Amino acid sequence: MLRFLVFILFLVSSFLSAKIIKINTGNEQNTIASAIKNASDYDTIIVSRGRYTESNLIISKKLRMIGVNDPVIDAAKGGSIFHVRSSGVTIRGFVLINTTVSYTVENSAIKIENADSCRIENNQFKNNFFGIYLLGAANCLIKGNRFVSYGKSEAGSGNGIHLWKCRNITIEGNRIQGHRDGIYLEFAQNCLVKDNYSSDNRRYGMHFMFSNSCTYEHNTFTGNSAGVAVMFTRYVNMHNNRFENNWGTGSYGLLLKEIYNSTISGNTFNNNSVGLYSEGSNKIIIENNIFIKNGWAVRLMANSMDNVFRNNDFLMNTFEISTNSTQNFNNFDDNYWSQYKGYDLNKDGKGDIPHHPVSLYSILVEKNSTALLLLRSFLVEILNYSEKVFPILTPEKLVDNSPSMSRIN
Amino acid sequence: MITIENLSKSYSRIRALTELSYEFRKGMVTTIVGPNGSGKTTLMKCILGFLRPGGGNIYFDGKNIAGQSLYRDRTGYMAQKPAFPENLYPIEIIDLIKSLRTGKDTYDESLISEFEFYPELEKPFHSLSGGNKQKLNAIISFLFSPELVILDEPTAGLDPLTSKILKNKIKRERDNGKTILLTSHIIDEIEELTDDLIMLYEGKLKFSQKKEERSPDSQKPVSETIAELFRKAGDEHTL
Amino acid sequence: MNTLYKITGYELRNLTRSKWTVLFTAIYFIICESLFLLEDQGAKVVLSLFNFILLFIPVISLFFGITFINNEKPFIELLLSQPVRRRDIFNGLYISLSLALTATMLIGVGLPLAFHFHSSKIPSDLLLIFLGSSILMNQVFIGIAFFGAFFFSDKSKGLIFVIGFWLFTFILYDMGILVLSYILKDYPIEKLMMILTVTNPVDVGRILILLQFDVAALMGYSAAIYQMTFGNIFSSAILLAILFVWSFIPYYISKTLFRNSDFII
To answer: Which of A7, A77, A106, A191 is most buried (most C-beta within 10 Å)?
Structure first.
């Protein structure tokens, strides 16, 4: 009991001792750098409105950095802006701009290195090389930030939020635009990516590798030049995201490469050249998704096995499924296919004849892309029809035996 | 009335008419005879302007018809096989043809009553019998009291009574000073109607005989003249 | 009284009384209305309708067209024996047939479309492109039917010609493109293929559909198409212009044939 009282007293005293340091542009001596230098753990540094040209601000104390009325920190002198090396740091309310492109150093607006329990909230990042860069961080929250960059090429731009060897990071409610990859995760474990909006990035809306047991949900990825890539990972949960408007050769709503034991549910794939592309991915459950108006709803490469597609809606896609194999080791059940031409005489809601979602023509196009020019031609209809009657080239076993007669989701 | 001068016409390789010259006289029925493919229809169609002559000239009332269409205001034509827009009524067809003619407001509708055609006027053309179709054809060709009437096998497909009415009409018009060109395969008809006679053979004018050249007292029927001509031409075609 | 106007008017009256035009209107109407019954998405109805029309219009325009003209030939002769310019006869026939067939389509398809327009949320630019290309496709094949009828004085030859044209533009041409694309597989042939494709009027109609419904797939194919489809409305306009040229050329040629040549039945 006494011990507890002493502990409480210590806690209260340490809070009482915490100072509030205010910074404004009026005083030449009064820089953010000097404020950080003079502060001690648990201090709060309040930076008010103004333009500060400072960079390489190393934070190795448990500080709260608060921007009031959107103070701008310009990294014109080079390097990163905040470089956090202590746990328990909060950075909130800043406008961080102009970290420069470098091909050797990842200049970032905020870099967090080997720290725990940091919070980066409600900042604005403009025209930066990297936005937020986390190395070996854990238990951090990145929330409500806005990123706008103007990278002209893939190589000349950095990622919006970049995680390397991190765990338990929550990335929530951010908007990222114009970076190389909007969100980048490599060797990140148990992370949650939620409610973000990642658009118009030079490469991927999100790029995700070797990051087991992560969840991302309710995000929107739109207009990124290559979509979203999830690779070399187990136990990923992808729920209720939107993958939209990724047009071009080699552009996918969602690219899966060597993904195992994961679930993809409740997502919408809308208006992509390829909605879902799967290569070497096994044991994935794909359910209750909507594939609408894609060029190819799903491209399933031969080395994808034991995946289950059920209760998905395939609506107005040019091709529903395409594959490069005549074999099939995946299951398709109870999906709704808008190209299904069957009937339901026993009125159980399921079509009475199976649906073959791979057309002969999709295989022709797979082998010779120029054939795409003949899409919807009479010739193609005839070819498809004759193949339906006598399947030779299409995978006979890739079939939905109980196609739904109406939309499910 | 119609003067033909060195008229030639050929279709790709076949020569249909070769250097034909003749004058069709006003107030006469000129019958054109000749075996099939001898150029009868070609000659008529040249006069009507459906065909462009390969050489020579055609004068209508002294005026060259090349490039003209207005002279057709003064012509009537009865084709061998009549055909009109299937779903129009004869009354509408007549109205259409009337509206294409310029400056006429009186019409010779005597054939309509003589043929007792009134009940047929408001039935779709495709529902008419073959004879009634041909009657409509005849009605239209005389409708505008044309100065020149060209009749291609006019009575083929008509019953004897109607033929008689039509033949009387032709004679009446001839007596009114109209110029009439006729082709026919029916001996009686030729016998009855012919004033001037010409024969075409392989596109050439083989023979012509004016009315007054036939001695009225010889009583030699026109048909016999024609039969002779055909034999002379060495053609096995019968009339 | 204007003779062109007269001939057009009476021929139009003739055509509208035909059981065929009534039948065509009914087919359009039934197909369109049943598509709306089966499908609640307006855009998908237009897609199915587009596919149907692409097949149906050429068949009607070619076969009904050439049969109509062949049947009219004796009457054309009678018209020729009247004081009428040939140009007026030709245009009268062309305009009346075009108007009649366009009307069958516009009434048959237009009534259900107008009725369901609001509830099915059909985008109006899609509707305009659909109607525009349907009308132009109709004109292309009417032109071909006129050409077949007046270039070949023999009726059966004319019919063989339109059957051949139909087979060629519908299947054989695309087969050729498919074979060529395999032969030249290893060369950069995108633009060549693109040009070859838009040379065929049926393919132009088809690409117009693709531009409305399959852009995502086309983008997955190549940059050349990307350039071509840069601005969907713009490329649709170009394709419609190609169809217009396609409809004008056979009209012009057959008109010239009609005016200058002998008229033999």
So the answer is: A191
Token output for B111? 């054939």
The predicted-structure confidence for A214-266, as pLDDT tens digits, reads as follows 999 999 999 998 889 999 999 999 999 999 998 888 789 999 999 999 999 99
Unique residue bearing structure tokens 């060109």 = B181
Can you tell me the distance from the alpha carbon of B1 to that of C13, in angstroms, rounded to the nearest whole number? 38
Which secondary structure element, helix H or strand E, spans residue A366, and what is its range? helix A360-367
Calculate the CA dihedral of residues B186, B189, B193, B196 and round it to 10 degrees.
20
> Which tokens is C205 given?
């109609």
Contact (CB<8Å) B72/C3? no
Whether residue C263 contacts residue B50, with contact meaning beta carbons closer than 8 Å, is answered with: yes
* Residue C206 Cα, gap to closest chain A Cα (Å): 7
CB contacts, 8 Å: C210 with chain A: 375-376
- Please check the confidence at residue B34 and state whether its pLDDT lies above 60: yes
Strand, coil or helix: what is A173? coil
* DSSP tag of C98: H
Q: Looking at beta carbons, which residues of chain C come within 8 Å of A370?
A: 181, 185, 189-190, 193, 221
**Which ipTM did the prediction report?**
0.84
Name which of A295, A370, A375 is nearest C190 (Cβ-Cβ): A370
- Domain map of chain B by residue range? 2-232
Residue A62 and residue B19: Cα distance in Å, rounded? 119
Inter-chain residue contact B51 with C11, CB threshold 8 Å: no
Closest alpha carbon within chain B to C11: B85
Q: What is the reported pLDDT for C105?
A: 94
For residue C191, give the 3-state DSSP assignment. helix
Exposed e or buried b per residue across B104-125, where buried means at least 16 C-beta atoms within 10 angstroms of its C-beta: eeebeeebbebbebeebeeeeb
A369–C51 CB contact, under 8 Å: no
**Cβ(A309)–Cβ(A398) under 8 Å?**
no
- Identify which of C43, C177, C215 has the shortest CB distance to residue A374: C177
Q: Where are the domains of chain C?
A: 3-260
Q: Locate the chain B residue with the closest alpha carbon to C6.
A: B96
**Distances from the Cα of B225 to the Cαs of A23, A363, B202, B238, C20, in angstroms?**
133, 81, 19, 14, 52
Strand partners, B152: B183
CB–CB of C219 and A370 under 8 A? no
The answer on pLDDT for B239 being more than 50 is no
* pLDDT tens digit sequence for C167-222: 999 999 999 999 998 898 888 888 888 889 889 999 998 888 888 888 777 777 66
Residue A201 CA to residue A160 CA, distance in Å, equals: 9
Instruction: Identify all chain C residues contacting B97, using CB atoms and an 8 Å cutoff.
Output: 78, 82
pLDDT on residue A386: 86
What pLDDT, on the 0 to 100 scale, is given for residue C175? 94
CATH topology of domain B2-232: Rossmann fold (3.40.50)
In 3D space, the residue among C80, C264, C15 whose CA is nearest the CA of residue B100 turns out to be C80
**What is the residue-wise DSSP string for A235-287?**
S-EEES-EEE---STT-EEEEEEEEEEEEEES-EEES-SEEEEEES-EEEEEE
- Distance, CA of B105 to CA of B98 (rounded, Å): 9
Cβ–Cβ gap B102/C18 under 8 Å: no
Q: Examine chains C and B and say if they touch (3+ CB pairs below 8 A).
A: yes
DSSP E strands in chain B: the ranges are 2-11, 14-24, 29-33, 55-60, 63-64, 75-78, 148-152, 179-183, 196-201, 204-209
**Residue C19: closest C-alpha in chain B:** B87
Residues within 8 A of C (CB atoms), A 202-261 only:
247-249, 251
* Residues forming a β-bridge with A286: A264, A309
Output the average pLDDT for chain A.
90
Question: Least CA distance to B102: which residue of chain C?
Answer: C83
